[in-house]
Amino acid sequence: MNNIFKIKLNSVNNAALFVKKCGEFEEDIDYIHGRYVIDAKSIMGIMSTDLGESAKVEIHTDNIETITKFKEEISLWMEDK
């Protein structure tokens, strides 16, 4: 199963909610914006990017149940549903 998803946050509120959702997972999660890879649990890191642009998010696990739950939690911001 794919563990990389394309998202767009669009606002500070969305960024804060996204970081909160990522914090609910034990796994490492990367927010990939252009050539930068940022810890998705870091609000300061996320805020240092252009929220109006698309980014990728990767959860580091092979557990299909965890990937599915993560995908459901971030579905609000996914571009390719």
TrEMBL record:
Matching PROSITE patterns: PTS_HPR_DOM
Residue ranges constituting the HPr domain according to the UniProt record: 1-81
A family per Pfam: PTS-HPr
SUPFAM superfamilies: HPr-like (SSF55594)
Superkingdom classification of source: Bacteria
InterPro entries from the UniProt entry: HPr-like, HPr-like_sf
Protein name: HPr domain-containing protein
Organism: Blautia hansenii DSM 20583
